[in-house]
From TrEMBL, chains A, B:
It comes from Dyadobacter psychrotolerans. The lineage of its organism: Bacteria, Pseudomonadati, Bacteroidota, Cytophagia, Cytophagales. Residues 22-94 form the Transcription regulator PadR N-terminal domain. This is PadR family transcriptional regulator.
Amino acid sequence: MKNEFLENWHSQLRKGLLPLYVLHILDQKQCYGYELIQDIKAVFSVDVAEGTLYPLLIRLMKEELLTHQWVEQPSGIPRKYYAISAVGKSNLAEMKAYTNLIITKING
Amino acid sequence: MKNEFLENWHSQLRKGLLPLYVLHILDQKQCYGYELIQDIKAVFSVDVAEGTLYPLLIRLMKEELLTHQWVEQPSGIPRKYYAISAVGKSNLAEMKAYTNLIITKING
DNA sequence: AAAAATACATTGTTATACTATGTATTGTGT
DNA sequence: ACACAATACATAGTATAACAATGTATTTTT
């Protein structure tokens, strides 16, 4: 670890940004958990542990920001596909507006 | 509380953004703790509890991102003035670059 | 046949915001 | 004069969520 402070900071920042990443991606297409981990890495260059993402998805379900359905596969383990709900969409909009506002203030 | 999820999200996001706020403000002028609370509210419209800020300042001191000096006042309690260090400045630059990168990806 | 990748999930640890509380001084309203 | 708010520091306990470690099971690659 080169810079302990920065690494810790990234981890703390993730606590706020991860729900935003998940909602952002699910706003564009339905995904299953394992797929989300790869998409988040591809889009945001962020490595998310499974032990982080799965509890987060469960949490977002409880808050009713997401819905899900099991989809059987021709072969292999069934996939749990998640979709963003209407509540999720409105929250996502507020979250994006807020983060943009903050960043404007930091740059301005 | 209207939207419990959003309130919690703001709180989590703060964990990542608060060090950025503090370094950003101290990059422009030296401040004492109580003053920082007011400045953060004024600039970022964020209410920071004293029980949040003081431990954070102590942490940033330990990480050597800040320096401080006590300044006696003509009247009243002495103030502990904080200033950003060279390490603090370089970390701040990285933090700003990173947050901007993320926002670009969310908006793009 | 072994290892890696896919796909789900839980448990324990750690970091940090937040509430509550504490100390002490100064200013304001009545 | 006296209560209350504001100023200015600080710590203790609680709640939240990332992360590492671990577990189960199937499929693909070497």
